[in-house]
Design a protein that fits this description.
The complex is a heterodimer of chains A (595) and B (156). Chain A is built from 14 helices and 17 strands. Chain A has 595 residues and is α+β, with helices and mostly antiparallel strands. In chain A, helix 2 packs antiparallel against helix 4. The longest helix of chain A has 56 residues. The radius of gyration of chain A is 74 Å and the shape is rod-shaped. Chain B has a single domain, classed as Rossmann fold, CATH 3.40.50. The chains are: A alpha+beta (595), B alpha/beta (156).
Chain lengths: 595, 156
C-alpha cells in the first residue's frame, strides 16, 4: 500500500482511472453477461417449447388413432430443428409411443419427467403434455442440445473480452491523457518550486492554465512569491540599513577620542573600542587568551559601580596605566543597556581627564605657591616695617644725640652733615612706609559695604583743613554717590588726590571740584583741579610707583600716592584715568560700582 | 645693666625688655635727659624678661632685681618675642597685674591689635627724633608713676 502512495501522482491518477474504469466495465459485462446467458436460455426454451406445442398439435391425431407411423412422420419434421437431438412421445398411460432421433444425438432414452423443461448437463429437456378438449393424450419429450447455446455464450464472452481489452487500451490512453490535465500543472508547480528553491530566484511566476482549484493554487503560489519577494526586499532593506548603521556605529566608535565599552551582566568585557585598545591594550579585557605586558597593579578599569550600573547611570573617577606605562586619570560613566526583559548589559564611556587633573594639580600647586609668596610678602612687610625702619630710627636718634651732646662744639658744616644724614634716614623711612601701603593696598581684604562719598569727602576736608586754608583753596562737591567698597581705602584715594591737587597748584587760586555721573550700575566721578597739569607724555607713567615728574626740591613726596590710588580703585573693580593739560589742570576720571 | 642712682627702696622700678643695645641706650638716655626718677632694669630678650619676673637664677636676688612697677616691652625680639611675653605675664596669677606698655618700632595694625588683645595697657611707637622720645618718656613717667595708682608690689 505504501508503495502505491509513494508512486507519482501521474501514475496514481492513471491507476485510479484505469482501475475504476476496468472495474465498471468488467462489472457491467458480468451483469450483462449473466442476464444475456439467461436470455439465451429463455429464448432456447421458448423457441423449443413453441416447437413442442406445434408438434404436439399434429401428434394428437396420431395418438388418438394410435397411428404410430403418423406420429413418427410428424416427429421427423423436427429435423428442421438442428438443436433437437431426440423426441419421444408417450401416450396418456405413459407408454412409449414413437420417437425421433437426430443422427448426431446419443442413443440414450430420454428420461421421463413431469416438469415441463429442465437443463441437464449440456442438454435441454422439454416435456410437452398433449391435451385436446381437456383430454390428456400423452407427453412429448424433446431433447435439445445446448451446444449451440454454449457456443453462443462462448462467442459472447470472447467478444466481451475483446471489447474489454480494447476499452482497457482506450481507458489507459484516456487516463494518460486526462491525468495530464490534472498532473501537468501540479508537476509544473512542483518542478518550479524545486527550481526556485535551487536558484533562490523569487521573481519567477507561473502561468495558470485554467480557473480551477489548481488555477487558484497557482494564483496563491504567485501571490506567495510576490509576498516572499516583498519580504525579501524588506528584509534586505532592513539588513542594508542594519549594516549601514553598524558601519556608522563602528566608525563612531573608532573615531571616538574617548573610551567606550560594553560589559556583560557577569561584569566581563564584551566590547571595547579602538581608543581603549590603542591606549590601554584593552583587547585582552575582552579576550582572556591575550596576555598583557602592563604592570600588574592596574590593568583594567575599576569594577566599581557595575552592580549599580545595571539599573542607573554611575559615575566614577579612575586612574589607569596606559600602554606607555603612564598613569592616566579617567572619568567613567556606566549605564544599563536593557536588551530583553531578562538580559541587561553595562555600557560605559570613559574620558581622559589627565590634562585637566594635571592642570588642577598645577593650579593647586600655584595657589600654594601664591599663598607661600603672600605669606613671604607678609613676612617681608613685617621685616620692612620693623627691621628696616629700626636702623633708620637709630641713625636719626643718634644723630640727634650727637648734635645735642656736642652742642656748641659742633661747627656749622658738621651740623649740616648730620642734618643730611637725618633727612636721608627720614626719607628712607617714608619710602618704606609708602611701599608698605602700596603692598597692603594690593593685598588686604577689602570690605564691600555702602560708602557714602559725601561723608568721606567731608572727613578729608576736615583733616586737611589747615592745608586747604594755607593754600586758600576751594573744594567743591555736592550730592556724591553711595558706592560699594571699603571706606578706609577709598578715603586714602581721595585724600591722596586732594593732597596732590594742593601740592601741584598753579599760581591761580586752587579750585578742586568733584562731579558725578551715573551710568547703568556704576558711577563716573570726575575729580578736577586747576593746578599745573601734567604733560600728555607722562599720563601713562604717573600711576607707576616711584614715578616722579618733579625733583624732590620742587615737590616733596615718594611718587607712590597715585600708584596706591590706582591699586585701590582697581581692587574695587573700578578704574582710574586722567585728562590733563599743562598749566590748565588735571581731571581724574574714577569709575566705581554702585552699591 | 644700668641702674639709675636713686634710693632703691622708694623709687618706682621700670623693667625695659629690649634686645637692641642702641635702643636700650637710647631709652636710658631719654630717661636720663627726661630726668625720670626710676630704677630702670634692663633685660635683653623675652626669655630673660620671664626669668627676671619669675626670679630664675641670678634674678632671685630681690635686692638687685626688684619687682617692677612697669614693664616696657619691645615686640620684635629673638627667642621669645614681646607678644609671647605679654601673653605669659597675663596668664600668670602673680604677674598679671603689672602694667605693660608696648614700646616698639612696629606700627603694624596686627601688632597693635594683638597687643591689646593679649592685655597690653598701652601701645607706643618709638618716636624717631630724640626730643620726641624724651617727651614720650616724660609722659609715661607722669602717667604711670604720678597719676596712676599702681597695684601693690609682690615678692618674687
Amino acid at each position: 500500500m505504501k508503495y502505491f502512495y509513494n508512486l507519482s501522482i501521474k501514475t496514481k491518477i492513471s491507476l485510479i482511472i484505469i482501475s475504476i474504469s476496468l472495474f465498471a466495465v468488467i462489472f457491467s459485462f458480468f451483469v450483462i453477461s449473466i442476464n444475456n446467458v439467461q436470455t439465451f436460455k429463455n429464448d432456447l426454451v421458448l423457441q423449443n417449447s413453441l416447437t413442442a406445442k406445434l408438434i404436439s398439435e399434429y401428434l394428437i391425431y396420431a395418438i388418438a388413432f394410435d397411428d404410430t407411423k403418423d406420429a413418427v412422420e410428424t416427429l421427423d419434421k423436427l429435423n428442421t430443428q438442428p438443436f433437437v437431438l431426440k423426441a419421444e412421445l408417450y401416450d396418456s398411460k405413459g407408454k412409449f409411443f414413437a420417437s425421433y432421433k437426430n443422427k448426431k444425438a446419443s442413443r440414450k432414452n430420454l428420461i421421463y419427467k413431469n416438469s415441463s423443461f429442465n437443463f441437464s448437463g449440456d442438454k435441454l429437456h422439454i416435456y410437452e403434455s398433449i391435451h385436446a378438449d381437456g383430454e390428456f393424450f400423452g407427453t412429448l419429450h424433446l431433447l435439445i442440445t445446448t451446444e449451440y447455446l454454449n457456443q453462443k455464450v462462448k462467442d459472447y464472452f470472447f467478444l466481451m473480452l475483446i471489447i474489454i481489452f480494447v476499452m482497457s487500451l482506450f481507458v489507459v490512453f484516456l487516463a494518460n491523457s486526462f491525468q495530464n490535465i490534472i498532473t501537468k500543472p501540479i508537476l509544473k508547480l512542483a518542478s518550479l518550486t524545486q527550481e526556485i528553491s535551487k536558484t533562490n530566484d523569487y521573481t519567477i511566476r507561473i502561468n495558470k492554465f485554467f480557473d480551477d482549484e489548481i488555477g487558484i493554487l497557482y494564483e496563491g503560489f504567485n501571490e506567495m512569491l510576490e509576498q516572499i519577494v516583498k519580504n525579501e526586499t524588506n528584509t534586505r532593506k532592513a539588513q542594508t540599513a542594519l549594516i549601514k548603521s553598524e558601519e556608522q556605529f563602528s566608525i563612531f566608535m573608532q573615531m571616538l577620542p574617548a573610551g567606550a565599552f560594553i560589559k556583560n551582566a557577569d561584569y566581563t568585557y564584551k566590547y571595547v573600542n579602538k581608543f581603549l585598545i590603542d591606549e590601554f591594550d584593552a583587547h585582552y579585557w575582552v579576550d582572556k587568551n591575550i596576555t598583557s605586558n602592563l604592570p600588574s597593579e592596574r590593568k583594567q578599569l575599576k569594577n566599581e559601580g557595575d552592580i549599580e550600573a545595571l539599573e542607573n547611570v554611575f559615575h566614577l573617577e579612575d586612574s589607569l596605566y596606559d600602554n606607555k606605562n603612564e598613569l592616566r586619570f579617567l572619568e567613567t560613566w556606566k549605564f544599563p543597556i536593557k536588551r530583553h526583559k531578562t538580559e541587561t548589559l553595562i555600557g560605559g564611556f570613559t574620558i581622559d581627564v589627565t590634562k585637566r587633573k594635571n592642570a588642577e594639580q598645577k593650579v593647586k600647586y600655584y595657589i600654594k605657591e601664591l599663598e607661600r609668596n603672600n605669606s613671604d610678602l607678609e613676612e617681608f612687610n613685617y621685616v620692612a616695617s620693623h627691621d628696616l625702619r629700626e636702623p633708620l630710627r637709630t641713625i636719626t636718634s643718634y644723630c640727634d644725640l650727637l648734635k645735642e651732646d656736642l652742642g656748641d662744639e659742633l661747627n656749622k658744616d658738621s651740623s649740616e652733615d648730620i642734618n643730611f644724614i637725618t633727612d636721608a634716614a627720614a626719607r628712607m623711612n617714608t619710602l618704606i612706609q609708602d611701599i608698605l601701603q602700596l603692598s597692603r593696598a594690593g593685598r588686604v581684604e577689602f570690605e564691600q559695604e555702602a560708602v557714602d562719598l559725601n561723608v568721606i569727602m567731608s572727613n578729608i576736608v576736615k583733616d586737611l583743613k589747615l592745608k586747604i586754608e594755607e593754600n586758600l583753596a576751594e573744594v567743591k562737591y555736592s550730592n556724591l554717590p553711595i558706592v560699594k567698597g571699603d571706606a578706609v581705602q577709598l578715603s586714602r584715594v581721595f585724600q591722596n588726590l586732594l593732597t596732590n591737587s594742593l601740592k601741584f597748584k598753579s599760581e591761580k587760586k586752587p579750585i578742586i571740584e568733584i562731579t558725578t555721573k551715573l551710568n547703568d550700575d556704576f558711577y563716573i566721578l570726575n575729580f578736577s583741579d586747576n593746578g599745573i597739569g601734567i604733560e600728555k607724555q607722562y599720563h601713562m607713567q604717573i600711576f607707576s610707583a616711584f614715578k616722579r615728574l618733579h625733583s624732590r626740591e620742587e615737590y616733596e613726596g615718594t611718587g607712590i600716592g597715585l600708584a596706591i590710588c590706582k591699586k585701590i580703585i582697581e581692587r574695587h573693580n573700578g578704574s582710574i584715568s586722567l585728562e590733563s593739560e599743562k598749566n590748565i589742570g588735571t581731571k581724574f576720571i574714577i569709575k566705581l560700582n554702585k552699591y | 645693666m644700668y641702674t639709675l642712682e636713686h634710693n632703691k627702696n622708694n623709687i618706682a622700678v621700670t623693667l625695659l625688655v629690649e634686645d637692641n643695645i642702641a635702643d636700650q641706650q637710647l631709652t636710658v638716655r631719654a630717661f636720663k635727659k627726661g630726668k625720670i626718677n626710676t630704677n630702670l632694669q634692663i633685660v635683653n630678650d623675652g626669655q630673660e624678661a620671664m626669668d627676671y619676673l619669675l626670679g630664675v637664677g641670678k634674678y632671685s636676688n630681690q635686692e638687685e632685681y626688684p619687682w617692677p612697677d612697669l614693664i616696657l616691652l619691645d615686640i620684635n625680639m629673638p627667642k621669645k618675642d614681646g607678644k609671647q611675653v605679654l601673653k605669659e605675664i597675663r596668664q600668670h596669677p602673680d604677674l598679671k597685674t603689672i602694667p605693660v606698655v608696648m614700646l616698639t618700632t612696629s606700627d603694624q595694625e596686627n601688632d597693635v591689635l594683638d597687643s591689646y588683645k593679649f592685655g597690653a595697657n598701652s601701645y607706643i611707637t618709638k618716636p624717631v627724633r630724640i626730643n620726641d622720645f624724651i617727651d614720650v618718656v616724660n609722659k609715661l613717667e607722669e602717667f604711670w608713676f604720678t597719676l596712676s595708682l599702681l597695684p601693690p608690689k609682690k615678692q618674687k
